[in-house]
Amino acid sequence: MRVLVIGIDGATFRLMRPLMQKGYMPFLCRVEQEGALGVLTTIYPPVTAPAWSSFMTGKNPGKHGVYEFLHRKRGTFEQIPVNAGMLGSETLWEMMSKAGKRMVVVSVPLCYPPFAVNGTLMSDFLAPMGARDLSYPPELLQEVEDKFGEYLLYHKQVYTPDNVGNVLQELEDNTAYRQRVAEYLLQRDPWDFAMVYFEGTDRLQHELWHVIDETSPMHNEKEAAQYAERTRNYFRVLDDDVRKLAELALAQDPDTTIILMSDHGFGAIHKFVNFNIWLLREGFLKLKQDIPTQLKNALFNLGFTPSLGYKLSMNFGFANLRLSQGMTNRNQILDWVRRGFLSFRNVDWARTRAFSSGNYGQIFVNLQGREQFGSVAEADYQNVCADITARLYELKDPQNGVPIVAKVYKQSEKFWGEFIDDAPDIVFSLAENYKALGTLEFASNKIVEPAFGNSGDHRMDGFVGMLGKQIKRGAPIENANIMDVAPTILYLMGLPIPSDLDGQVLTKPLSDELLMSAAIVHGDALGARDQIVPDYSEEESEEVKERLRALGYLG
């Protein structure tokens, strides 16, 4: 049978359930009544790039190799933006193309650069600005732009108190454009599998969570009175867009199964946590003793930090530079400022046992033989991990005494596979409303500080919904993981499930008739393949990195 997947980035019941109850999302209510609906737990870290990679491969990051938006080259601190070539495992698109299934894929993350599929594919927002290789077949981009204008991939508007209307207008315009393109491509050619991706929900929740969350420290009643209804209405329009796509697919073929899903959930940010500062204070990370580093450190302790620079830019009305084009010029202007901040260049690696790098505070042991300037012997590795774990549990908010770290995991609990050497050594979840402050080495001189900029961020609990003739009516979906969606799609389409996928078929929502008539068949393992380093120029690489910082993903 055919399958249509609609990806709604960051969609969460924390917002959607109240909206459903108030009548803003009638189609999602229909999915819950006539089909199946439930929580979809994502992988760690709950970041767009690795999460959608785990969806499209059915594997954990240890098997597909994408752990973050940036990939750190082994043995160095050089980071490059990830793209489709970085996936170290075969994807759904490839499995189905080999099986002769025709498909339509619209802007799903990690579909750039575009690759050959049995059908049509449009690339995603991780493409460098100005790139024209955005489709397969290559001529499809021009065809789409002839009909609908410039292909809209990027968001440039960010929250400031006087810019909410512009943020919402851009979200509304980009979503309407994506809807028109999706409807056109779904009707352009026959297909067996299709996927349409909407990222506006993610951007809205990052930038405007506080507008409709009255408990947010950033909530402003006057601002909410002006914009809360329009913010909620974005979900009403998106719900109707999803309905139109689903009904279009069902009108073409009543046997189509509809799957709605997000890559992660969302929640409020109240405070940021800076884990390199914590590692510095705890003695796991050491600074050089030279005069330039000591001078930088003195200024840093006085408050000369990147977070101060960002707050000042907001106060003086320059926050929109965060998503503007022309980032290369901005880099040149700010380069002298960056040279004044502490960075990993000021770390004494010979005396450093651990460092943090990642959107969720992931900690890496400075291991000999793996890290460029490794100082920790293999025999001491477990002791260092145990020491850091114990101290993480002792970390408390100095303002209220609340424990900040909710749970510390062993590496093996979250990652396994051929790319395990790239995995962080210590991963953890934070207490509700706390967020690690990006991947900038030393963003602030405080371990804990009030959040600024974005008011919402990712959580582990996304959602999944299923609708169609082979889906039980009113069935709850329980204990589902994002890695389960790929094998479920393969089963629905009558294809064998590779034996090395980590996910399982979600059988509970499927009809008894289907399960009795079609066995779950497992095929050969896919194994791993070499990762292809993105062929970006230095300028392109920096542009993508700056855009990710602008979106709130890199500090």
Gist of the model:
Helix content is 37%, strand content 16%.
What does this structure look like?
The protein is an alpha/beta fold. It folds into two domains: 3-268 and 458-543, Alkaline Phosphatase, subunit A; 271-305 and 341-450, no CATH class. Helices cover 37% and strands 16% of the residues. The chain has 18 helices and 22 strands. It has helices spanning 13-21, 26-34, 48-57, 61-64, 92-98, 140-148, 164-188, 200-212, 221-252, 275-282, 291-301, 306-315, 327-338, 381-394, 411-414, 485-492, 512-517, 538-550; strands at residues 3-8, 36-41, 70-72, 79-81, 103-106, 119-122, 135-136, 193-198, 257-261, 265-268, 271-273, 354-356, 363-365, 405-410, 426-430, 434-436, 448-450, 456-459, 461-467, 475-481, 497-498, 522-523. The strands form seven sheets. A nine-stranded mixed β-sheet has the order 7-6-5-8-1-9-19-2-20, with helices on both faces. It has a three-stranded mixed β-sheet with strand order 16-11-17, with no helix packed on it. Strands 3-4 form a two-stranded antiparallel sheet. Helix 7 (164-188) packs parallel to helix 9 (221-252) and helix 8 packs antiparallel against helix 9. The longest helix is centred in the middle third of the chain and has 32 residues, at 221-252. The relative contact order is 0.20.
Could you outline the blueprint of secondary structure elements for this entry?
Elements: E1 3-8, H1 13-21, H2 26-34, E2 36-41, H3 48-57, H4 61-64, E3 70-72, E4 79-81, H5 92-98, E5 103-106, E6 119-122, E7 135-136, H6 140-148, H7 164-188, E8 193-198, H8 200-212, H9 221-252, E9 257-261, E10 265-268, E11 271-273, H10 275-282, H11 291-301, H12 306-315, H13 327-338, E12 354-356, E13 363-365, H14 381-394, E14 405-410, H15 411-414, E15 426-430, E16 434-436, E17 448-450, E18 456-459, E19 461-467, E20 475-481, H16 485-492, E21 497-498, H17 512-517, E22 522-523, H18 538-550
Parallel strand pairs: 1-8, 1-9, 2-20, 5-6, 5-8, 11-16, 21-22
Antiparallel strand pairs: 2-19, 3-4, 6-7, 9-19, 10-18, 11-17, 12-13, 14-15
